[in-house]
Amino acid sequence: MKSEASRPLILPQNRKLRHLKGIYVRNLTLARPRGHTIDDAALNKTPQKLEALRREPQLHHAQSSGDLRPAKPRRSSTNWVGASPSFRQKKLEDVRDSRMADTFITLHCEGQEDPIYISEVVEKVMNPTFRSFDLSCLGPATTRLDTVTVKVWVKRQDFTPLVKEEVNLQSLQFMGSMEDHPFPPNTILFHLIDGIYTIDLTPKPPQPKASFTLPTSSYNALMRLSNLDESIQDALATRQELASQINNILSNNPSPASSIPIAQESLTLANRYVLTARKVRAHSERRQAELKKSLAARRTAISSGYAAQAEAQADVDDAQVKLNICRNLHTSTLSQIRGQRRRICEELIQIFPIEPTSHPLLFTICGLPLPNTTFDDTSSHDEDVISAALGHVAQLVYALQFYLSVPLPYPVTAYGSRSLISDPISLLQDAQRVFPLYMKSVVRFRFDYGVFLLNKNIEALAESQGLRVLDIRQTVPNLKYLLYVCSAGQEELPERKRGGIKGLLAGGRGMGSRRGSEESFGVAPHGDAARKALENGHGNGNGNATGGAPSGNNHLGAGAGPGAGSGQPSPVLQIKKDGHTLRTSGLRENIVR
What we know:
By secondary structure, the chain is of the alpha+beta class. The protein folds into 4 domains: 1-32 and 85-205, Immunoglobulin-like (Sandwich); 263-340; 352-486, Actin-binding Protein, T-fimbrin, domain 1, CATH 1.10.418.40; 502-582, no CATH class. 39% of the residues lie in helices and 13% in strands. It contains 10 helices and 17 strands. A hairpin with a 6-residue loop joins strand 13 (412-413) and strand 14. Helix 5 packs across helix 8 (475-486). It is flat, with a radius of gyration of 57 Å. The model is unreliable at 1-5, 503-531 and 537-593 (pLDDT under 50).
């Protein structure tokens, strides 16, 4: 006789998520379900519909053009007759791949955005069987739920959800096992602790029970058997308890004969411990004596350290007072330096006046126009003017490097209209590092490069004052902007300090600073005027230059500063109607006719 079919052990109302151990999918079908049924069981079978179907049709509908089309040929495999085995294998693999896909499942609960479980990906199967899982670690708020949403994800090109089912575990149907059950497409099976369940699957009919009655025992016999079983269990428990008591007694009370070797071994071990403890004690006593000596030495060192620290603290206190005085002095010195720089820059603006012209972005320095790095088609007259103007710019840049405490990256040698500039940075030969700032009798590209280096010096001076030069080719505008910023301020300009450079006061001796120079004797009558100009800080209008800028290698004579008046020009600088020249001692230049 066949055994009775297995039945569920858990009542439907007791099924929870904690009982769920696994999920399987059977008959995976990638085609989406159609919008209408293909089962005859879903047809309308009401009496009115059946009566209408039995009636004789009165009219015959005409066939449409679509119905008159020839029927499409059915698929045939006759073209495989002469095909090669590789072709057949490929066709079979294509059919298999069209029915298989990579699959995984996710479980979702209401009120939780993230899935509570994500399975592994099972590749290329129609009946994916996923690993068993345990949801008891999710907490009682989740494991006590009886509703779960199952999503089946498949991959053809990308993973997409194929099936989404919200399942109530109480409505599942028990299957027992998965054998001998035809499954519809995309069937989801639930493995609980008492068997396999599914959704809307007709259960197997139960096996008919035997009609005859089996013999059994009477109630009294069953009661006697129950009492006998309880007596046997009590006897077994008593025996176990007695055995444990006997074992405890034997382990706690060993025999004297067996304890002698243990005692001897314990004595030997104790003697070893005593010997070791004595050695440790002797070593500890020696270590204690060493530590006492070390502590005494440390106390002495600490005492001397405290004394040295007290002396150092006194020195620090004294130095702190001096530091505060030095800081105040430094602050006041910086303020004085800023004031003196403002005054000097203001005087430089007066010594080297930079004025705009009618042309935009074209300025003159000391009355000489200087274009912004554009010297094309210049005549010999313009070459002399440009060379003289560049000499003034070189002299002004040379002076500003000392007043602003900014070393020039490209040193300038101010020789008036024959000024030079050197490039110690580039990889050049030593004989080619000096470039002219005049145009006559020189290679044009060397002159252009010298003007470029001069503009880079002006840019370096501007950057030292926190200014940004937009176009370094604008030589005179950038220089005027630099002087304007350096002389700007709300405080009053400080007065010039008494004294000065003795070389500027050479007129007081009645002769030139250099012996044997006629030009030095020519400058001597103006010594008193120069001394007064230095003391008053400005020109007196008699044609002599004013200001306290360092002179470099040339001296500024009459007509070069803002104080140029109607007096006679000095031999240092001669200006005529038909030409310009900047003459210095040791350099002679013919006036351009």
